[in-house]
Amino acid sequence: MTEPKTRSRIYNGEGDRLMADMQEADRIILLPDARPSKVPDRTPRIRLMWGQHMLEDLLAGRYRSLVCAVNDTDNRRGIVTQLATLLPTSQWDERSITAHAKTFSQSGGRARVVKYDMDAVEVLAILRPAGQDHLTMEDLAGAFKVVVEMISARSERTPSASVSFLGARSNALRNGQGNEPSLETVLAMMYGAGFTGDVYPAPTMWEAAPTAVYARYPFPSSLESMRHGGS
Q1: Domains of the chain, with CATH numbers?
Q2: 185 burial class (0-12, 13-18, 19+ CB within 10 angstroms)?
Q3: What is the DSSP letter of 38?
Q4: How deeply is 57 buried, as exposed, middle or buried, from its count of CB atoms within 10 A (0-12, 13-18, 19+)?
Q5: Which of 25, 47, 134, 205 is the most exposed place for a label (fewest CB within 10 A)?
Q6: How many distinct helices (H) and strands (E) make up the chain?
Q7: Residue 140 region, left (φ>0) first, then alpha (ψ -120 to 50), else beta?
Q8: Tens digits of per-residue pLDDT, 118-174?
Q9: Helix, coil or strand: residue 222
Q10: Which contiguous run of DSSP H or E holds residue 147?
Q11: 3 state SS of 81
Q12: Rg of the Cα atoms in the chain
């Protein structure tokens, strides 16, 4: 007779029972994309940091470089300004960040990558072209090729993290139809450019349930099979 399978407890005391019904909370249903193997898959992947706080991880020294966006008019609400304010050795503030971006700004040009050395972290900021009120997927695709080259050229820029560019207030991302693209579309672009650092989904996406999510990209082939009617 086979004994019933039991799972390891997660919390002490009554924690497991109390945490079993969290319908009113922001929820993420995280799916494993593969079972552990004795022979690890060495394929480079992007890790998705669901539920993790990027600023806290940056301040804790988990990353040496950060990929985000910047513009030449107003960065008061941008992650780059928040980080500069919190890092004790940073000499940057919103005014100097915006002024530095303006020196590289080009009207009607391509998105450029602007460096901000904040001592503990080097920010590789994708500069929104002058005259645009948002970033396009074409802007991001071209800039990420430069970002990957910059990271590859200097090992001290790894490990690297990136924002997802979704849910942004200062530098919104739009596709050719004027809508925000899916996370999968953005990840495919990043991965296609050669980026395999960590990506932080926007906190507004932490309410994804009941849609299940994966912790790595590329996603497993089973997802594509389901899209085509497979099980």
Answers
A1: 45-219 (3.40.220.10)
A2: middle
A3: S
A4: middle
A5: 25
A6: 7, 11
A7: alpha
A8: 999 999 999 999 888 899 999 999 999 999 999 999 999 999 999 999 999 889 999
A9: helix
A10: helix 137-153
A11: helix
A12: 20
